[in-house]
Amino acid sequence: MSRAFPALLVVAFLVSAPGANATSAASVFEHSQASSQDWCQDVGRNGDRETFCEIRDLRESGASRLELRDNANGSISVTGSSGRDIVIQARVVTTASSESDARALAKDVSITMENGRVRSSGPSNFMRNRSWSVSYRIDVPSKFDLSLETSNGSVAVTGVTGRIETESSNGSLRLTDLGGQVTARTSNGSVNVKLDGKQWDGEGLSVTTSNGSARLDVPEGYNAHLIAGTSNGSLTVDVPVTVQGKISKRLDTTLGSGGATVEVRTSNGSVRIGRR
């Protein structure tokens, strides 16, 4: 969108926005056999190879930070809860030429957690007809620091306030109801951010993607310093903003009475600012 506006106009791009219900930050994963089986149900054959899936549970008390980095293949989902522990469901998926080989490969995949530091290790994924991956569903206290990284998979964080760093090389980012100092980026994937309350609680938010669309949903009456932009794509604003000069591919404005900086950018993709 490229359009010139007179100075200090209040501009409202009003469209019907889809309804969104906030996810409860107090939700806790039920580590039941049924839920474990459900999570493995969407794992099927991989071409002519057989697949094996299992769920492992981990729990740790006393840590003040979760660090999950260098995850080669798999998604990461973290939810803030009312508990004090780190509670993890880890889904291990292996593929091999036969079911027995896939089961045996899973035994060689190790997942450890010590002082909030989670790591997975296993045989080389470059072996012919054999591969493995680990995806995570994690509960942490609602006020917690996070450092999350995966190479091929999505990252989702809901209901956590703290120093949060997330990164994916090939996967989407979904950030909902966060606070603190948040930095998130992906090289290839979409970005979806949902804010809550009347203003950002903490230092601010910076989310970027190199190749993918970006969407930011803000509640009515939200107060912030908003920065949004794209190098190659459209910029659409569905909420009232005050602008000076020309809106083209970058928006730098104050929402309401202002506040912490909320920044969403993409290099190659569209950006939409919508109403939550």
Give a short summary of the structure.
This protein is mainly beta.
Compute the average pLDDT: 86
| Shape verdict | globular
The largest β sheet comes out as:
10 strands, mixed
Main sheet strand line-up: 2-5-8-4-10-12-14-16-22-18
SSE topology string? EHEEEEHEEEEEEEEEEEEEEEEE
Total count of helical runs of at least 4 residues = 2
Provide the low-confidence segments as ranges: 1-34
Q: Proportion of β residues?
A: over 45%
N-to-C CA distance: 21 Å
**Percentage of residues in helical conformation:** under 10%
Derived structural class:
mainly beta
Strands, total number: 22
Query: Radius of gyration, Cα only, in angstroms?
Result: 21 Å
Textual characterization of the structure:
The protein contains two helices and 22 strands. It is mainly β and about 280 residues long. The strands form three sheets. The chain has a ten-stranded mixed β-sheet, sandwiched between helices. The protein has a ten-stranded mixed β-sheet with strand order 6-7-3-9-11-13-15-21-17-20, with no helix packed on it. It has a two-stranded antiparallel sheet with strand order 1-19.
